[in-house]
Design brief:
Layout lengths: L2 E2 L6 E2 L5 E6 L3 H4 L4 H4 L5 H4 L2 H14 L3 E6 L10 H5 L10 E2 L2 E2 L21 E5 L10 H7 L4 E7 L1 H14 L3 E10 L3 H16 L3 E3 L1 H8 L2
Parallel strand pairs: 3-4, 3-8, 4-7, 8-9, 9-10
Antiparallel strand pairs: 1-2, 5-6
Bound molecules: tricarbonodiimidic diamide (TIU).
């Protein structure tokens, strides 16, 4: 394992301290009839990255490196969902409403599940988060600290919302953050491109960006 060809410059992997974070690859964002679709989005773009995320995930698994998954979801009584979030965007289905995959964005419902192709396996922790960032209102920071993780490789959806928010939270907490550019997607191609530019600008003000191939090559899998 070595350095990853990345922007704005190579990312030096520290094998004992790196983890993969797969953000919110849930039915509610990826499949028709879920939360993403209820906001008026075409989910086909985000659906298309599932095989690439699987390839990255399998690379980390093959190397025995830690993997974390996140899910954006709320408690059934909505006590962790601010009214401002629930009403935002005047969606056709609000968080907690009954939809095609159960109650929208609610823990335990079908829509909140990670898509089967990327389902967590034994030993992989899933962080349920009420916000866009994975550190807010969760024990993610403590889980990473307990494993001595200092570097995070990011995949998942959507690039400019939950992925970028989590990368910024992680960056402020001292983690070195690398985004897998073809294992993340947005409903808006221009927002994905802009988010990646923002992350790597100014010498990597938020972090690094690299392709899945470049990451797998450095992992030697
Ligand atoms: N709407 C949108 O682009 N994203 C979210 O609401 N959550 C995540 O990004 N996971």
């Amino acid at each position: 394992m070595g350095s990853i060809k990345a922007a704005p410059f190579d990312f030096l992997l520290i094998p004992d301290h790196v983890a993969l974070v797969v953000i919110d690859m849930q039915r509610d964002f990826i499949e028709p009839g879920g939360f993403g679709a209820s906001l008026g989005n075409d989910v086909s773009r985000v659906q298309a990255i599932v095989p690439t995320v699987a390839r990255l995930l399998n690379g980390f698994r093959a190397r025995g490196l830690p993997v974390f998954h996140t899910r954006e979801c709320h408690l059934p009584d909505l006590s962790d969902c601010p009214p401002a979030k629930r009403s935002r965007g005047n969606p056709s289905l609000r968080i907690g409403d009954e939809g095609a995959m159960g109650r929208v964005l609610i823990k335990g419902e079908r829509g909140a599940e990670i898509v089967p192709q990327l389902a967590p396996i034994a030993g992989e922790l899933t962080i349920d988060k009420p916000g866009k960032g994975a550190f807010y209102g969760t024990s993610f920071g403590e889980a990473l600290a307990s494993k001595g993780i200092t570097q995070l490789v990011f995949a998942g959806v959507t690039t400019e919302v939950c992925v970028q928010t989590t990368m910024r939270e992680a960056n402020d907490r001292g983690f070195e953050c690398l985004l897998a550019t073809d294992a993340t997607e947005s409903y808006f191609p221009a927002f994905k491109a802009a988010a990646i530019e923002m992350i790597v600008a100014q010498g990597g003000i938020v972090g690094w960006a690299a392709t899945t191939d470049a990451i797998l090559e450095a992992l030697d899998v």
